[in-house]
Amino acid sequence: AETFVALDHIGVDRDVSVTAEFRPLPASVSVIVEPSGAGVVTLTPPGGTYERGTTVTLDARPNAGFSFDAYVDEEGAAVSSEPTYAVIAEADVVLTAFFVSIEPELFNLIVEVEPDGAGTVSLMPPGGMYELGTTVTLTATENSGFVFEAFVIGR
Questions:
Q1: pTM for this one?
Q2: Cα–chain-centroid distance for residue 149?
Q3: What is the pLDDT of residues 87-99, one digit of tens each?
Q4: Nearest C-alpha neighbor of 65 from the set 17, 104, 33, 123
């Protein structure tokens, strides 16, 4: 059997059987991250271009301040809310990995002085609104004629 790579015509001088052989084009899997910089998505196996039928695992990892929300296809349909998702590369696939901003939970620290004018209280770090878990140092400074006695929580 003879093989011709770019044969498009043949001179027939005997009985000839010709088979046209085709192979499928590879399929691509790509992921867009929204918003840009909110996280990364790794493909396993890596590369982005695959033999059709290959199972590709996507793994979304949010950057600080974000959490993974969902993978959405080109038509806008959510296909998974799990950060790890497997897709079969039967055709070109474009997914968008959506991440959402995590708003830190803030707490208000209100400091009062009793009696009024008896002294001052400074906060370190300064501010009054703090994220969960922040350690705040309170420093009481008494005015003339007063002595600091104690901090009372929840009065």
A1: 0.61
A2: 50
A3: 999 999 999 999 9
A4: 104
User: What is the DSSP code (8-state) at residue 136?
Assistant: -
Copy the structure tokens of residue 25: 């084009």
Q: What CA–CA distance (Å, rounded) separates 52 from 90? A: 5
8 A C-beta contact, residue 59 and residue 41: yes
Bond preceding residue 45 cis, omega within 30 of 0:
yes
Q: Quick: pLDDT tens for 49-107.
A: 999 999 999 999 999 999 999 999 999 999 999 999 999 999 999 999 999 999 888 89
Residue that the structure tokens 């790794």 belong to: 42
| Distance (Å, whole) CA 101 – CA 7 | 58
